[in-house]
Amino acid sequence: MQKETPAAESLAALYMVHQPRLLRAALRILGSTELADDVVQDTYLKLLEGPPLSTIREPVAYLFQTVRHLAIDYHRRRALEHRLFTEEGDGEHVTTTDGADNIVISQQALSMASAALAGLSARTRRAFELYRIEGHTQRDIARDLGVSATLVNFMIRDAHLALTSCRECLLPG
After folding, report:
1. Alpha helices per DSSP H over 6-98
2. Hey, what domains does the chain have and what are their CATH numbers?
3. Of 51, 105, 131, 151, which sits 20 to 30 A from 121 (CA to CA)?
4. For the segment 24-50, what is each residue's pLDDT rounded down to a tens digit?
5. 29 φ, ψ (degrees, to nearest 5)
């Protein structure tokens, strides 16, 4: 068995002394004991890979700051995963029809969307197309159309509302 270096020993000692407080700090951010444990363990691994303890001016503050940053990263990642998987995985918009039915439904949806967009003013429709289809920024659209960015935002919103009503007709409930 290898003997740890003095720096690793002092790091381990510092970590062990503050581990309960580190867990509480991570728990406050994450709300889960299991995730807090993961964060605190990851903190130790990160410290082993990081700068030597002797070069850190405030080692305890550095330790807590590392826990805080990792906990926030975990929290953000969980929130993102939750949004991604609940939007895709809720099964709300899954169709079980065969190919011919899908084609008819798609054609009907396209027809309804075209009709909804045709009901908008030419300027609103153009702002929506530039934003959604061509990927222009609202500021660029405002400049091109000679209107304010706020008005462009409202025009895009109006187009979205028109299309949302189409979607509600196709996907009731």
Report:
1. 6-30, 33-49, 59-89
2. 1-88 (1.10.1740.10), 98-172 (1.10.10.10)
3. 105
4. 999 998 888 998 999 999 888 888 887
5. -80, -40
Torsion of CA 161, 162, 164, 169, to 10 degrees: 150
Could you tell me if 152 and 141 are in contact, meaning their C-beta atoms sit under 8 angstroms apart?
yes
pTM: 0.47
Question: pLDDT digits over 112-131, tens only?
Answer: 888 888 889 999 999 988 98
Instruction: Decide: 12 and 4 in contact? Cβ < 8 Å.
Output: yes
Distance CA 159, CA 141 (A): 15
> Is residue 117 exposed (0-12), middle (13-18) or buried (19+ Cβ within 10 Å)?
middle
Quote the CA–CA distance of 27 and 45 in Å, as a whole number. 19
Q: How many CB atoms lie within 10 A of CB 155?
A: 24
